[in-house]
Write a structure and sequence with these properties.
Elements: E1 12-13, E2 16-25, E3 31-37, E4 42-46, H1 47-51, H2 60-65, E5 68-71, E6 74-77, E7 83-84, E8 87-96, E9 99-106, E10 111-115, H3 116-121, H4 129-142, H5 148-161, H6 180-183, H7 186-193, E11 202-205, E12 217-220, H8 222-227, H9 238-244
Antiparallel strand pairs: 1-2, 2-3, 3-4, 5-6, 7-8, 8-9, 9-10, 11-12
């Protein structure tokens, strides 16, 4: 005669709290129990394994020791407590597809959800306050804040490092980077690109698959830039076709 099942609902075993009996059974017809781990993961566990101390978490304790956590079946590096630029990672915020997102607090106090890959790759290093500060300081120093060249430099940075910029998905999200000396200094950008600038020209990457750097940037007419698109180099994607209908690297700006 089968032994009666003892209800262990509500019991705690290590990091696991028993939510109730599961419909699953072992080949020996032993019941599984639905449990919730302290990290938030729910799973089915054999009751005897919990009672005997064989299972006392969803597995997160072992992964924490290895420097990783598992969320909803996918393993990601645990970024909690790390800093990236001005960001402090507060906690895991969820995931979309295979990408982990994190609640981050900027040094200025703003809290936002940030793509984990953008943090690790250096694409996102603040809520935007650092760019504003750099731009303000730079504009004060060189007095060119209303010059078309400054607008080209500012737009270049936004679409490459500001994930809130509408064109970010066509540049920063595709891996387009900015040469480090240009990233924080308009003076350096203008020192390299200013001598060849002419009124009416726009900033263009000669190789549309390359980065923003002295060896790959030039000033060209709007017509030349429109023809220098990824869609004209084969390997078309719908995103490339869509982006070709938008403004290229830097559209016409008001001349002053």
């Amino acid at each position: 005669m089968a032994r009666p099942i003892v209800d262990i609902t509500g019991n705690r075993y290590g990091k696991l709290v028993v939510l109730g009996i599961s419909a699953k059974r072992t080949p020996e017809n032993k019941p599984f129990w639905r449990v919730r781990c302290d990290c938030g993961v729910e799973k089915d566990v054999i009751g005897n394994n919990m009672k005997n101390g064989v299972t006392n978490s969803c597995g997160c304790d072992k992964r924490e020791k290895a420097g990783a956590k598992e969320y909803y079946g996918s393993t990601f590096d645990d970024l909690t407590g790390r800093t990236y630029g001005l960001w402090l990672v507060l906690e895991f915020a969820g995931r979309r597809a295979k990408t982990a997102f994190w609640n981050c607090q900027c040094e200025c106090g703003n809290v936002r959800v940030v793509n984990g890959q953008n943090l690790k790759r250096g694409y996102s290093f603040s809520c935007g306050c650092s760019q504003k500060k750099i731009a303000a300081e730079t504009a004060f120093k060189h007095g060119m804040s209303h010059h078309p060249g400054y607008a080209a430099w500012s737009s270049m940075k936004n679409r490459c490092i500001n994930d809130r910029d509408p064109d970010y998905k066509y540049y920063g999200a595709k891996g387009v980077k900015i040469w480090q000396p240009w990233l924080g200094s308009f003076d350096q950008f203008w020192q390299d690109m200013g001598p060849t600038w002419q009124k009416g020209l726009t900033l263009d990457r000669e190789n549309p698959f390359g980065n923003y750097e002295p060896s790959n940037c030039r000033w060209v007419t709007w017509e030349v830039q429109r023809s220098n698109k990824r869609v004209n180099f084969g390997q078309l994607t719908w995103e490339d076709i869509e982006s070709s209908l938008l403004d290229p690297d830097c559209g016409p700006v008001n001349q002053t």
